[in-house]
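Sample 3 of the quickstart, ligand adenosine-5'-diphosphate:
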Amino acid sequence: AEAQLRQSQKMEAVGQLTGGLAHDFNNLLTGISGSLELLEKRIGQGRVESLSSYLDVAQTATRRAAALTHRLLAFSRRQTLDPMATDVGELINDLYQLLSRTVGPSVRLQTTLSPGLWPTLVDRNQLENALLNLGINARDAMPDGGTLTITSSNREVTDDDALMLDIKAGAYVVICVADTGVGMPQDVVAQAFDPFFTTKPLGMGTGLGLSMVYGFTRQSGGQVSIQSEPGQGARISLYLPRVAMTTAPARPGNGSQAALPA
Ligand code: ADP
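Result:
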């Protein structure tokens, strides 16, 4: 639980930092980009064409940096969640095409439609983004192809498990995103949720994907956990709380879904 607290404090600090930083950085980039454009025009008028290739490079780099700041901004904005009662299985089904295009043709995407899933109270956009982030990570972990399996199921979390997971005991829908990729050693698992932690080559990863997934599940009253070993693939589990029942069970003793914890 202490690690969880440290994690949320880190998230908070990084959120504030990146908000201000991204904004100022973006203003600077606008200036750089404008100047480069003017320079390019002047060079075009004179006879110093050889310089323009350098300017091309600078332009491209500037554009990439701008794209990064947009991502930072999206990350740091006090995301106002718009939670709605959501059938997670349906959402995954609707996202299938986009997910499969995201992971590419070398990854086999398997999703199981689980009937009778409890509704969860989540921000649908954020859940979609979280699943896309996990899809991108899985793709990157399977450079030679593999299988990405997404399953969802109902789970009653008991007191003991709740303590371990640092969530309330009760009813959750668990989404498992499992790949057959390179997996992670324990020290990577331990840092994977840290903002800006990445093992990917420069320019390939931001280190923000999993910290966004973490932020989203915690804000939703749930949890995210990683099971992975080198060479054994990775399994990311998202716990999302079931929509709280607002009315008492109408017919006690009918044995259906009345088993909500006190
Ligand atoms: P990024 O993907 O930009 O590096 P993330 O926060 O999404 O940032 O992930 C952090 C790190 O966790 C990755 O750089 C990688 O080392 C590790 N990781 C995440 N997902 C997986 C996965 N499915 N398989 C193996 N390693 C992973």
